[in-house]
Structure formats: structure tokens, C-alpha cells
């Protein structure tokens, strides 16, 4: 039985075409600054987002943490972010370990910290208080179920940041999905941010790689930090070629993943085991609540027994993510298999 792997959009395998492109990539030494394929990728992605420069990084985690570190001029500064954000929940304790940041976790409805929330959480400047200096947003928002941030509110957040001299970072690992779903151009989605990280290895389907985007002076500082993180890579055009290939070809097809996710959400709702808030399914992530008294590990194991893989997210939620390597008919097949083991 073929495994239908819905754990994450990071599980995609390189296609034969991608492997061919990688095999033929022209390479140099990127630490010495002369890998032509990496240079091509960096300038292509910077142009795509209308940013001055971009930097190729091994992972989204490194791209986020380098960005936060370069913004942080003093240890003990405070970062405002959503309680469920990736930067805090899944990057070990990066903000404190790398940058000495104090994190203030704000509780939000769908991952959006409003301008008013930022304003009311900025601390007084006095002898006693930490200095509130950074805000990080995530679009689309993973733990909130792939939700898209409202762009007009993002713009207002930037205005408050300017008023109080705060830096605004975007974890845009899945910004491509927001763009595919709401049609707002990538430059407009990312214009309000001082820095942006984007992943090539999620919905776009590259095996490795993320980019930091921002002003040229910021990116040069990030390059030095990347070296400090041990992320300077040599003949890395081999993988950058795959990144360039996916960014040039795989953005428009993300709408297919969103349709498949909606199909999946509706279908899961037919089972007594699951309850999915359909209003939350805006992109390629479906978070299903388990409402039959079992926990996510138990239900995940039942699904696994018929080779359908989902990710236990919390004790009572399972995450299903659609991607390049699962079609609508794979998901139909997955639902048929679930009918054999669930009511
Ligand atoms: C929203 C978000 N940001 C950042 C990352 C980090 O990416 P990586 O796994 O490449 O470190 C992920 C990974 O799943 C993510 O979902």
C-alpha cells in the first residue's frame, strides 16, 4: 500500500527533473562568494520580492534566528510574538540562546498581533523595564492552521513599530501560500517588514533551503552571522539549483494544494472522530480536533495502520498538510482507508 504522507509539506521528494537540474548545476565556492547558481537564486528571489538583497540559508530556523540576532543590538531586549509562533515553539530556545531576547508571548485569535496589541504591550522607558524592540509575525500561520494574516493590519503594525522604533520581522516560511490564496503580490505582502525569511523547502518542494530578504546592509550582516552559525556552505549551487527551479515553477500550483486541503477538511468532518473548523482552512494546512475521547497519538497510530500519516500536533489535534506529492485522488484514497478503521 502506498504511504499517503500528510504530516508536512516538507516531506516532498526531489523529482527526476529536479535531480537532473541539480546534477548539471554550475557551482563555485559560496563562502568565497563565487557560486554562480547561488548568486542567481539570491538575485532572483530578491527581485521577486522587490527587496535589495537576499541570503541563502540551510533552514528556515537559521534564517529566522539570524534575522532576529542581527536586529538585536543589546541582550535583554524584548520580542513580541504570537504564543503559537514557530520562532518560539519549534526553534528550541533560539531567541534567548542566540540573541538574549526576552520573549513576550501574546495570545491571538488566528496568529495576528494587531497594531493595538503591539501598542499596548510596549513597555515604558525607565530604569526598571526591559526595552521592547522587536515584533515577529508568521504568515501563513502554522499552528493556527495555515491562516493568512490580514494585510491591512500588518501595515498598521508597521506604523506602530515606526512610531516606537521597533523592528518588524516576518517568518514567511509559507508566504507563497498566502500569496496564492489571496492574490496579493509577494512584494506587497512583505513590504511592511524590516526583514523576511521564506522557505523553499515547504510547499514549493525544494529539498533544502530558505532565504532572508531585506536591505543590502542588513543582508551583509546576516552573511557574517550565517558564518558564525556554521551555515557557510561551499559548492552549494547543487541545492540552490533546486531552489531556483521551484521558485520559478511551483508558486502557481499551490492553489491545487489549497483545494485538496479543503476537500480533506470536509471529508474529515464526516467522521465522528474529527471536528475541523472549516473557516480556518485557508491554505494547505488542516488541523483536526479529535472529539471521540481518544488522543492524537492513538488516532495517529490508527491512521498509520492504513498507511495514512498525519502529525500529532497537540494531545487532541492532528495536523494534515497537502503538498506537491499528494493529489486529490491520493486524499480520496486516504479517506477510503480511514473508513475501514474509523467510524
Ligand atoms: C512557520 C515556520 N517557520 C519556520 C520553519 C522552519 O523551517 P526549517 O524546518 O527549515 O528550519 C517552519 C518549519 O516547519 C515553519 O513551519
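Q: What amino acid sequence fits the structure above?
A:
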Amino acid at each position: 500500500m502506498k504511504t499517503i504522507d500528510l504530516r508536512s509539506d516538507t516531506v516532498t521528494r526531489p523529482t527526476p527533473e529536479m535531480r537532473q537540474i541539480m546534477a548539471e548545476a554550475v557551482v563555485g565556492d559560496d563562502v568565497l562568494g563565487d557560486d554562480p547558481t547561488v548568486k542567481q537564486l539570491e538575485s532572483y528571489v530578491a527581485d521577486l520580492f522587490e527587496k535589495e538583497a537576499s541570503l541563502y540559508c540551510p533552514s528556515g530556523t537559521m534564517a529566522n534566528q539570524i534575522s532576529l540576532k542581527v536586529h538585536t543590538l543589546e541582550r535583554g531586549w524584548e520580542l513580541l510574538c504570537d504564543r503559537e509562533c514557530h520562532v518560539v515553539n519549534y526553534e528550541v530556545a533560539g531567541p534567548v540562546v542566540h540573541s538574549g531576547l526576552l520573549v513576550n508571548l501574546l495570545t491571538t485569535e488566528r496568529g495576528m498581533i494587531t497594531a493595538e496589541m503591539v501598542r499596548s504591550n510596549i513597555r515604558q522607558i525607565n530604569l526598571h523595564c526591559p526595552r521592547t524592540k522587536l515584533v515577529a509575525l508568521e504568515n501563513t500561520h502554522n499552528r493556527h492552521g495555515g491562516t493568512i494574516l490580514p494585510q491591512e493590519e500588518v501595515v498598521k503594525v508597521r506604523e506602530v513599530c515606526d512610531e516606537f522604533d521597533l523592528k518588524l520581522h516576518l517568518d514567511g516560511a509559507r508566504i507563497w501560500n498566502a500569496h496564492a490564496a489571496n492574490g496579493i503580490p509577494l512584494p506587497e505582502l512583505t513590504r511592511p517588514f524590516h526583514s523576511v525569511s521564506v522557505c523553499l523547502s515547504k510547499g514549493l518542494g525544494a529539498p533544502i533551503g530558505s532565504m532572508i530578504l531585506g536591505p543590502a546592509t542588513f543582508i551583509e550582516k546576516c552573511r557574517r552571522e550565517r558564518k558564525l552559525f556554521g551555515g557557510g556552505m561551499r559548492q552549494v549551487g547543487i541545492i540552490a539549483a533546486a531552489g531556483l527551479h521551484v521558485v520559478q515553477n511551483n508558486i502557481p500550483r499551490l492553489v491545487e494544494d489549497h483545494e485538496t486541503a479543503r476537500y480533506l477538511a470536509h471529508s474529515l468532518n464526516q467522521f465522528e472522530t474529527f471536528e475541523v473548523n472549516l473557516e480556518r482552512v485557508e491554505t494547505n494546512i488542516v488541523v483536526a480536533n479529535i472529539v471521540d475521547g481518544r488522543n492524537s497519538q492513538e488516532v495517529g497510530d490508527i491512521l498509520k495502520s492504513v498507511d495514512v500519516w498525519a502529525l500529532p500536533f497537540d494531545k487532541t489535534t492532528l495536523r494534515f498538510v497537502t503538498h506537491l506529492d499528494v493529489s486529490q485522488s491520493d486524499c480520496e484514497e486516504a479517506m477510503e482507508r480511514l473508513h475501514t478503521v474509523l467510524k
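Q: And what stands out in the fold?
A: The chain has a mean pLDDT of 97.
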